[in-house]
Amino acid sequence: MSEYYGPPTAYTSPSILSLAEGLQATLGISYPTSLTNGQYLEYGSERVYPEIPIYYPPISVASLPREVIDNILKFDIIWQCLPTLKACALVCSAWLPLVRELLFETLVVTDGHPTNNFKAFDLLLKKSPGVCYCIRALSLRPDRLLESRTGKTLNSTTLREMLAYLPRLTALEINGLRLDGGEGNLSFLPPHSCLEELKITNMHSWMNSGKDMLDIFSVFSHVQTLRLERLGQLKGAIIFEDHGACFTPDMISSIKIPRSLTTSCIYMASISQPHFYLEVLKQAHSLDTLEAVTVECEDAQLLPGITSDLGSFLTDSGTNVLELNISLVNCWRYRQPIYIETDCARIYGELVPAIQYMPSLHMFTLSLLAQHNPEVTARPTLDVWSIMISMLSALPPTTQIINLVLEVEKYDETFQDRHLPWLSPHFNWTRLQVALNRFPYLEAVRFISSAVAGAIALNNSEWDLEGRKITYYLPELAERGILRFGMI
């Protein structure tokens, strides 16, 4: 096997031209010869640095059985190391197709001069049909070095032709492009695409009306995952895990969605005008059951709109919800317990009434932020958990799993009982026991502690104390063997 050198420790700016020179003789692929310096490709999650000196011996006919070759290629050291792939391909010509597939299966193209870079990549595809057939996932990311104020654009026709050369492309990401002549429509996407996953990000002013969104759903009814993020002044997102998208509220007034649209999850986080999003959901006629509804707000001022609109949507649509997740953790103002109490009461008043009559609810999760400020008394936090117990009392009796997550801020080695409500002697365990006894099909009640970023998690002795205290105050649930304790 030929000699080769590992990746250098200090990298300059590699180029597509260098990659072409390194792989042309190795893999028998033709590349364009006039490319701009300072450009590069990435493979998978790691960049490829092609400036590696290689000794090229004569390529001979394979003398090893094919099954032996396949077994060798299974080793991580083979397919994760570009020099090793080159060296192996030089020894055995039968490895060339497999090596080519491994090298070009996932590509990330990015540069500070997207017009030149994409032109070079387009030439590469035109002159190398073998490479085109290998590409399954492609990410175009000129945004790393491209400032939107530069006004640099890419011709939508060029992008369309480039994608048309990729017959096996199943995943496409377009991030930060400003298309010339392609904004407001889908002209840059090739017809008869076999795409399964499409993500478009940071393409401002790309959608001009609800019709553009309708076109997306109509064209990509076969796409399993569709994500449209930050296409305007979007502050949050609804993510549909199957056929789904993130919409810019000020760009959508009314829209009709094909009946083929299916939705499994809603994730609502800091959405400025949630009723626009939910209006889209109302017109999804096949939306009978939601696997999960998650409410997580980083901007507490937006929470009233989210809870009221989501509650109205769930009540009016009659949609069943299997899992409800409420998180009051990430907002800075929740470090003051009074705000947690206010927002928790709002959720109880506006959202829970829409959930309590849903017979399909399987799991309920509530995440709160515990205080570690010695000046903060335990009483406000206990009021919050009193509202939490009221939430549990309002849930349908079919609920099977209840998760109570407490995000702990702990920055020193001391720990006082009042910082965790269920370690406080004032916590109303009797009321919690009564609330949990309402669920005859209850499979698990999980008490979970999680350390926020920069905090120190509970140590083993603190967590053991917590578990013993909960078991002591909830003996009936402990006898049923459904109490669970954990840390994240």
How would you summarize what this structure contains?
By secondary structure, the protein is α/β, with parallel strands linked by helices. The chain has 17 helices and 18 strands.
Key traits:
single chain, 488 residues, alpha/beta, Leucine-rich repeat, LRR (right-handed beta-alpha superhelix), 7-stranded mixed beta sheet, 7-stranded parallel beta sheet, 17 helices, elongated
Describe this structure in words.
By secondary structure, this protein is α/β, with parallel strands linked by helices. Among the domains are: 16-104, no CATH class; 288-488, Leucine-rich repeat, LRR (right-handed beta-alpha superhelix). Helix content is 35%, strand content 17%. The chain contains 17 helices and 18 strands. The strands form four sheets. It has a seven-stranded mixed beta sheet with strand order 2-1-3-4-6-8-9. A seven-stranded parallel beta sheet has the order 10-12-14-15-16-17-18. A two-stranded parallel ribbon has the order 5-7. Helix 11 (303-317) runs parallel beside helix 12 and helix 12 packs parallel to helix 14. The two termini are 47 Å apart.
Return the CATH topology of the domain at 288-488. Leucine-rich repeat, LRR (right-handed beta-alpha superhelix)
Fraction of residues in β-strands: 15-25%
The count of helical stretches stands at 17
**Annotation, overall tally of beta strands:** 18
